[in-house]
Amino acid sequence: MNQYKKDFIEGYHVVKKQTTLLTILFGVIGMNVFGSMGIAMLPVISTSPSEYGFWLTAMSVGTLSGTLLSGKVENIPLNRIMHMVSLFSGVCWILSFVTMESFLIPYILFGLSWMGIGILAIYAQTLIQVNLPGEYLGIGFAFLSSLLGSLTPIGYFLGGLLGDLSSGFLILLLSGTGYIGFAIYFMIHPKLSRLKNRLSVSFEHGI
Question: Looking at domain 18-194, what is its CATH homologous superfamily?
Answer without folding.
Answer: MFS general substrate transporter like domains (1.20.1250.20)
